[in-house]
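[audit] Reproducing an earlier prediction to check determinism. Same input, same settings, fresh worker. If the tokens differ from the archived copy the diff job will pick it up downstream; this log only records the rerun itself.
[audit] input (149 residues):
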Amino acid sequence: MQGIIFCGIQGSGKSTFYKQHFFNTHIRISMDLLRTRNRERQMLDLCLRTSARFVVDNTNPTREERHYYIAPALAARYELVCYYFRTELDVALSRNSLRSGKELIPEKGVKATWKKMQIPAFDEGYGRIFHINPADHTGFQQIEIFNTL
């Protein structure tokens, strides 16, 4: 059983990466889709009860926010993997500016998430951590980080 936690500012490519790599294998848990924490928690609980693979596709900038998903997943004996999207602020703002409607995040919102961002660490409970860098407008470079402790 695998749980994946995405971590990155708005416009960093998280949802695109999900569609390219996990759409056919993992359930997507996202506030953009579910709209309320209650629905999100219910979906997470359903995945854990049924041993379904899932991806949490939210910004998750702080350890505290990530712990909300990590604690119950570890209690259910899930293998946890983190994908940290290392996108520069100007790149994310540029990508965000191409959005429209509800998908367009106010610039101050993107900057606020950027300021809160804490780099994920193994002591949060992850078995594996990948840093994801944008390679071009449609691709990504994955770099696995190894636990040296």
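[audit] rerun output stored. Observation attached for the diff report: Residues 37-50 form the longest helix (14 residues).
[audit] end
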